[in-house]
Design a protein that fits this description.
Blueprint: E1 4-8, E2 11-15, H1 16-31, H2 36-44, H3 48-61, H4 69-74, H5 81-92, H6 98-108, H7 130-140, H8 153-166, H9 168-189, H10 196-208
Antiparallel strand pairs: 1-2
Protein name: Hydrolase
Keywords: Antiviral defense, Hydrolase, Metal-binding
GO biological process, one term: defense response to virus
């Protein structure tokens, strides 16, 4: 089974690997090669190289909640995957201290879901699909847990809010490239199935003359 990031009618339209690699390409070219690590490092109190590596790792982890066995096996939508991704990411990135927690909160917010109309349910099966986890481990070079360590949403969001209030700038400095890369990858890989934001990102890049990762038409 190929770990999938986007299904349509049970068919995998975008693989997890393709989604991650396409987004990483944008992060490298549009942000890190333009010294974004310096800005990010200042915002979260780490060296630029560490900040850049942490941004890469956060992007690789931003959709790991989609690796739940239930999601991969039912081949449909990935409800609340950002919350499940946050629970995994905060474990994996804990060795980075406060900077890792800030990056994890950015993952939680990468679909702008701070205000909840429904509470994320506890997965009946918390296990992550082995092939999906193995793929992400090979890309991130970190050990990934094989199941989600559950935290009640009320507590998790309360802790995230404390981190957010403590360093709003740091959260948004991670959040911006993650959101741009996520929507860019979706717009490139899903055959027109991307979000409105993704289409807007492509138009903006086209105006700026950036033909990143060979995605834009016309060979700018």
């Amino acid at each position: 089974m190929t770990p999938c990031a986007f299904f349509v009618d049970g068919e995998c339209i975008e693989s997890m690997e393709a989604h991650i690699r396409k987004g990483l390409g944008l992060i490298e070219e549009l942000y890190l090669k333009r010294n974004y690590g310096v800005l990010l490092g200042r915002a979260v109190g780490v060296e630029p190289e560490t900040a850049g590596n942490l941004l890469r790792k956060a992007y690789i982890l931003h959709d790991i909640g989609k690796c739940l066995e239930k999601f991969q096996e039912r081949r449909a939508k990935f409800g609340f995957h950002w919350f499940y991704s946050y629970l995994v990411a905060r474990q994996v990135l804990s060795k980075f201290g406060d900077a890792g927690e800030i990056a994890s909160v950015a993952i939680l917010l990468h679909h702008h879901d701070w205000v909840l109309t429904r509470i994320p349910p506890k997965p009946e099966n918390p296990r992550l699909h082995e092939e999906c986890v193995s793929l992400i481990e090979s890309m991130i070079e970190e050990k990934i847990p094989r199941s989600i360590q559950w935290v009640e949403p009320s507590l998790a969001y309360s802790e995230a809010e404390k981190t957010f209030r403590k360093n709003v700038r740091g959260v948004y400095t991670f959040l911006l490239p993650i959101v741009v890369a996520d929507n860019y990858a979706a717009a490139c890989n899903r055959g027109g199935k991307g979000s409105t934001l993704g289409k807007e990102i492509l138009e903006t890049l086209k105006v700026r003359g950036w033909d990143l990762a060979g995605c834009l038409p016309g060979g700018l």
